[in-house]
Design brief:
9 strands; single chain; two-stranded antiparallel ribbon; alpha+beta; five-stranded antiparallel sheet; Type Iii Antifreeze Protein Isoform Hplc 12
Length: 244
C-alpha cells in the first residue's frame, strides 16, 4: 500500500524542468569595438567643416575687375564705354585687371581681338598692337561732319577722299567738279580706336576734332595718311560692323 501511494504521488508531478529565474540568465558577449572606423568618421567631419569654412572665406575675398562689354579688335583699347566692373573671387594665379586700373589700361593695346563678355586679364594687352600681316593702322583727326554719329570701336567704315571745301560739310552747294574729285581710299577699314563719350579731353584733338584710328590694308595706308594730313578724309559706315 505504501509503494502504490508513492507511485501515485510521483505521477502527478510535471516532467518539464523548471525555468531559470531572471537572475540566472547567461551573460551576453561584449560588443566588438572598431576604433579605426570611429576615427575615420571624425576625420571626415573635420574635413567637411574645414572645406565649408574655406569656401565661405574665399567667397568673402572678392575684388572689382574690368569686364569687356563690346568687342575690341586687335590694336584697340578699352575705355569707359566698352567696359564695366564686376566682382570676382580673388585668385593670385589669374592676372585680373582691377577696375581702379582702367585709366592705365586705356594706354595699352589689345594684342588680339577680344570678344564681348570676357573679364580682362593682363595677358590680353601690350604696349604694341598686334596688327595682322598686310594691315596697318592710321590715325585721323576728323571734324564734325567727317564721321558718322555714334561711330565706335570695331565698326567697319569706308574712307573717302574729299576736297577741303566739302570735307567739313554736306551742303547742297557742292559743285560737280568737287564731287568728281571724291574717291574711295579704303572701302573696308576697321575702327581700332575712338574715344568714348566719358573719356577725358586728352583723347580729343582740339575742341571739335575727333581722334580716330583705322586699321586698313597696308597698300591703302599711305594714301589715307596723306589725305588725313590735309583734312580731306570722310568716313562712311558700311555693312560688316561688329554687331554691338
Amino acid at each position: 500500500m505504501k509503494i502504490q501511494e508513492r507511485t501515485g504521488a510521483g505521477a502527478g508531478r510535471s516532467a518539464v524542468p523548471a525555468q531559470p529565474s531572471v537572475g540566472d540568465r547567461l551573460p551576453t558577449p561584449p560588443r566588438e569595438r572598431k576604433p579605426a572606423l570611429a576615427a575615420l568618421a571624425v576625420l571626415l567631419i573635420l574635413v567637411g567643416a574645414l572645406g565649408a569654412t574655406m569656401l565661405v572665406l574665399q567667397a568673402g575675398d572678392r575684388i572689382e575687375v574690368v569686364k569687356v562689354t563690346q568687342a575690341i579688335p586687335a590694336g584697340g583699347s578699352v575705355n569707359s564705354s566698352n567696359t564695366t566692373s564686376v566682382m570676382v573671387a580673388k585668385d593670385d594665379s589669374i592676372h585680373y585687371v582691377e577696375y581702379s586700373q582702367l585709366k592705365q589700361l586705356e594706354k595699352l593695346k589689345a594684342v588680339n581681338p577680344i570678344p564681348a563678355g570676357v573679364v580682362a586679364v593682363g595677358e590680353m594687352f601690350g604696349s604694341e598692337a598686334g596688327v595682322a600681316a598686310g594691315k596697318a593702322t592710321v590715325g585721323l583727326s576728323l571734324k564734325a561732319g567727317q564721321y558718322p554719329t555714334g561711330i565706335k570701336q570695331g565698326d567697319t567704315v569706308a574712307a573717302y577722299r574729299v576736297s577741303s571745301a566739302s570735307g567739313s560739310s554736306n551742303s547742297n552747294s557742292n559743285s560737280s567738279s568737287s564731287a568728281s574729285s571724291n574717291s574711295v581710299i579704303a572701302d573696308s577699314a576697321r575702327v581700332s580706336y575712338v574715344p568714348g563719350p566719358k573719356d577725358s579731353g586728352d583723347e580729343i584733338v582740339g575742341s571739335t576734332n575727333l581722334a580716330v584710328t583705322l586699321t586698313v590694308d597696308s597698300d591703302k595706308a599711305a594714301d589715307l595718311a596723306q589725305a588725313a594730313s590735309n583734312g580731306e578724309v570722310a568716313l562712311v559706315k558700311v555693312p560688316g560692323n561688329s554687331g554691338n
